[in-house]
Design brief:
The protein is an alpha/beta fold. It folds into 2 domains: 7-76, 60s Ribosomal Protein L30, Chain: A; 84-246, Alpha/beta knot. Helices cover 36% and strands 19% of the residues. The protein is built from 9 helices and 10 strands. It has helices at 11-19, 36-48, 57-63, 84-94, 109-121, 139-144, 160-169, 207-210, 230-246; strands at 7-9, 24-30, 52-55, 72-76, 99-103, 126-130, 154-157, 173-177, 194-198, 215-217. The strands form 2 sheets. It has a 6-stranded parallel sheet, with helices on both faces. Helix 1 packs parallel to helix 2 (36-48) and helix 5 runs parallel beside helix 9. The longest helix is centred in the C-terminal third of the chain and has 17 residues, at 230-246. It starts with 6 loop residues before the first strand and ends with a helix.
């Protein structure tokens, strides 16, 4: 059973947690909150690009079990995130054909967990997500991943573009899963250092990201439904990569 996520509450406690390098999923702030200490926290949140949500006091009361939260509750991540540059260096030193996965603002935690599970099963060396706008690694994510979230490195970046620049500079090719192409995933050479980009549930891969990738590929859809669930599509891409690499 996955342990519940730890919440810390109180503005000063959260400031100290951030400054100590604690991995934080999200910070809930009371609507209309003011004060010198709050502005100090707000500035730190902006500097570290942390995800926040303005909520009514009733939600903070529930999260803190009615303790003295001072208008702020932070949800601590159950996993430690990796530095992308260091992870790439480590992977390149040990793997001939690295395989990474970039998730462009995927928002559903169950999709995220399912993708992590499939990624671990298919030998993905690391998953990259964006700090803002991405599904958190929380208890439900870990449960859906069947614990795989503890077995595969996950990196957070300010923007997916930052990761793409770094991957391409490291001679790792990138392919985006998108219907906005005539190329099939079966036409792409995945038997090389590769990073697969999957988009959000509603919008797919951002158009600015599509302009940057080396390849764009789609899955054939033979029925009347226009698209696949993102976790299913990701599984198809990953197992086509496995198939090519086993030949």
């Amino acid at each position: 059973m996955v342990e519940k996520i730890t919440n810390i509450f109180g503005i000063r406690a959260i400031i100290e947690a951030i400054e100590s390098g604690t991995s934080i999923n999200k910070i809930y702030l009371q609507k209309g909150l003011r004060g010198e200490l709050f502005y100090e926290l707000q500035k730190l949140i902006e500097t570290r690009s942390l995800t926040t949500s303005m909520v009514p006091i009733e939600k903070l009361d529930r999260l803190s079990k009615r303790s003295n939260h001072q208008g702020a509750v932070a949800q601590i991540s159950p996993v430690e995130f990796h530095d992308l540059e260091k992870l790439i260096e480590k992977i390149l030193a040990s793997e001939e054909k690295p395989l990474l996965l970039l998730l462009d603002q995927l928002s559903d935690v169950r999709n995220f967990g399912a993708i992590i599970r499939t990624a671990e099963c298919t030998g993905v060396h690391g998953i990259i997500i964006q700090k803002n706008g991405s599904a958190p690694v929380n208890a439900e994510t870990i449960k859906t991943s069947a614990g795989a979230a503890f077995k595969i490195p996950i990196c957070k970046v300010d923007h997916i573009k930052d990761a793409l620049f770094l991957l391409q500079a490291s001679d790792i090719k990138t392919v985006a899963a998108t219907e906005k192409t005539e190329s099939s995933v079966y036409d792409i050479d995945l038997n090389q250092p590769m990073a697969i980009v999957m988009g959000s549930e509603n919008k797919g891969v951002n158009p600015s990201i599509l302009k940057m990738v080396d390849y764009k590929a789609k899955l054939p859809l033979l029925g009347e439904i226009a698209s696949l669930n993102v976790s299913v599509a990701c599984g198809a891409f990953l197992y086509e990569t496995v198939r090519q690499r086993m030949l």
